[in-house]
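Ticket #4471: structure output looks truncated?

Reporter: J.K.
Steps to reproduce: submitted the chain below (228 residues) through the standard prediction queue, then opened the result file.
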Amino acid sequence: MRRSHLLVSAFVAMITFGEVVRAEIASTAGAMTEIAPPASVVVGALESSSTIYVFEEGLSTVPLTPDLFFDHIGPGSFEGTPPPFFLMPKGAMLYSYLVHFDPVGTTLTSLTGSITFEAGETIVGIQAHTPDIYSTDGFFGDPGVTYPASGTDLTRGFDTFVTIDDTGSVAFDLNTVTFMLAAELGVDEARIFTVIVPEPSCLALILVGIGLSLAPRRRQSASLGQCP
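Returned output as attached by the reporter:
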């Protein structure tokens, strides 16, 4: 238990150091297009059968209550089946981005697109399960954007169709994520969470701090320098 608390503390420390750097999408590919936060992402407000949209929602802090969850962490693929759940580190500062696909009409349409973040910005988790996306709208959503009211779109997240599944994949370097989305009635959305990884010199100081926290009390008088 103590080790898990220590890892979360280190994670939060990394986010705190990285928070001074601006988060950005470096590029998009395929059907993915970055836009400024729109006025609304409710069904029918931002339709396109040829484009998946993504926009930055901003930097927010994971609340102490209630418990919030990632549906996917680390490299690898994920899909529309009920995911495992990973508790978000409480108090952590995370950047969030919303991926939105709402095709025109009622014909099942599938598109593939990818997002690559600037060097140093790392994907720490993704929400693709409808209830989890709803649960973070109030904490991570852009205040200028109208989001679907809770429960109004029961297929807002990844869906599983007979012929086509919504799928995603995070690259091994945690810098690029690819989505293959299929929608007909309603929207397909996912929320991406990132942090800015600190410079190596700052990361070294974080690790030194962790080591000192485990040392005997008589050695706690050692001091840490500041990140250059």
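Triage note (M.O.): checked the attachment and the full token line is present. The CA atoms of residues 134 and 150 lie 6 Å apart.
Status: closed, working as intended.
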